[in-house]
């Protein structure tokens, strides 16, 4: 069994040593330009076109992240980047769901308890009580109810908040009201006080966070974007913040990263920024997942996390 590995910034040695420990019978190497030797599996993130394009011997390609939009964008731009018929497998959880739960819970409770406003008051030297939000009226909407979105929705519901989720197909999570399909999208948005975006990045979802969507939320709504910067129309967001339709926003992802130092988000008093850290790949957990899936394929079984190439996730 031959495995090739490529990641533009991960520590390759950690992954090579870790995978050799888990699959001692395999030959594992870091791919270098010009390497066209046989490979059964590829572990990749934003692989160069030449790495995979002509490989017809691959049995599986593993994307080293929860999102596969980058590699699918490469395929659209350069057809053949992914060999036809070879399953593309993404990291479905591998410790990311817990990280997303922590981030979403901390940020949602910050807005619910109005800590963001107390921070503003502190900077102005103002000592003033603010009436807390009413939990029965503080509706949290989770946009995207896959593995990560479902976990986030259930965690927020455990705090006694009114939580709803929306996805392309119907999903059921404990304590969470489910909306699905385009025909229920407007109903999902109506009455939402806090919107958390965890949608996959596909051609259909690019720019979905726009002025039309903002207008359907409660006046003075909060937004948390944990998915992709491509979902957000930044000018529309700035206009919604100016009008007060959106009260505040927390952004972990951006259209261009790193965020340019001159970008107005940096100094906006109602924008909170983190540098794409809501959920990061945990090597040890991820390597366990990849190794288990490789062994499943070797045993003739279907691995977990196979991407539907038509849907993009």
From TrEMBL:
Top-tier EC class: oxidoreductase
NAD among keywords: yes
GO molecular function list: gluconate 2-dehydrogenase activity; glyoxylate reductase (NADH) activity; glyoxylate reductase (NADPH) activity; hydroxypyruvate reductase [NAD(P)H] activity; NAD binding
Residue ranges occupied by any D-isomer specific 2-hydroxyacid dehydrogenase NAD-binding domain in the UniProt entry: 107-278
Documented EC number(s): 1.1.1.-, 1.1.1.215, 1.1.1.26, 1.1.1.79
Signal peptide: none
Keywords tagged on the record: NAD, Oxidoreductase
Ranges annotated as spanning the membrane: none
Protein name: Glyoxylate reductase
Gene source species: Obesumbacterium proteus ATCC 12841
